[in-house]
UniProtKB/TrEMBL annotation:
Residues passing through the membrane, by range: none
Record site feature (Positions MEP for the nucleophilic attack), residues: R158, K211
Site (Transition state stabilizer): R22, K29
GO MF, one example: 2-C-methyl-D-erythritol 4-phosphate cytidylyltransferase activity
Keywords annotated in UniProt: Isoprene biosynthesis, Nucleotidyltransferase, Transferase
Organism of provenance: Pseudonocardia spirodelae
UniProt name for this protein: 2-C-methyl-D-erythritol 4-phosphate cytidylyltransferase
Gene: ispD
Described function: Catalyzes the formation of 4-diphosphocytidyl-2-C-methyl-D-erythritol from CTP and 2-C-methyl-D-erythritol 4-phosphate (MEP).
Amino acid sequence: MRAPSSGAGVVAVLPAAGSGVRLGAGVPKAFVGLAGVPMLVRAVDGLLASDVVGHVVVVVPADQVAGAAALLPARPVTVVAGGADRTASVAAGLAAADPDAEVVLVHDAARPLTPAAVVRRVVDAVRAGAAAVIPVLPVTDTVKQVDADGVVVSTVDRSALRAVQTPQGFRAADLRRAHAGTPDPRTDDAGLVEALGDPVATVAGDPLAFKVTTAWDLRIAELLLAGAAREETV
Ligand code: C5P
């Protein structure tokens, strides 16, 4: 058991300002209900349940700030407006984060089933001295590079590949340095740290930390939650 205060010094930025076009739900993806609970609420509660996160900065579309705050009462949460792309949304969250935080996590609202153990592994690795830490899984499919016509150019050696999840963890000063100025949009924050030439460490991810992108992913997440609920009642 960890002491309740072990989240001191760790702030999580939760970018949830995407439109979710690929999900086709008609509302921003983070606000879509998953077994009745919006994904963004599940993601916040998952971070706080780890006992290693003291505060969460939630980043949502500008017209959803009040709505998101209303969904998250009685939690150590700040809600701010996001930007045009994920990198800009994370930068907005970082600007609102406690300047004295030592560790910053960046987590996708679109990974609502991420186990607390993954959050703890990432924070532990940063606390142990890594500047940047990402949770990863081995790639199980064969991966090929194709040209613009879809013709195979090469087969990539998958043994050296990893699929990358969130939360990604950083020494706060290093993430702020990586976001200084106007960085090129990236699909993750470790990419910004890599661009500075700094090492990025890996820890084990978890299949449950998958990203909900399509209606299929949403269905899988619903089925997993239904299965978990059934197991609890037997
Ligand atoms: O689009 P994708 O699924 O890669 O988005 C990953 C995360 O980044 C999601 O949680 C999404 O809400 C967030 N995002 C954001 N601001 C944007 C675009 C995406 O906060 N402008």
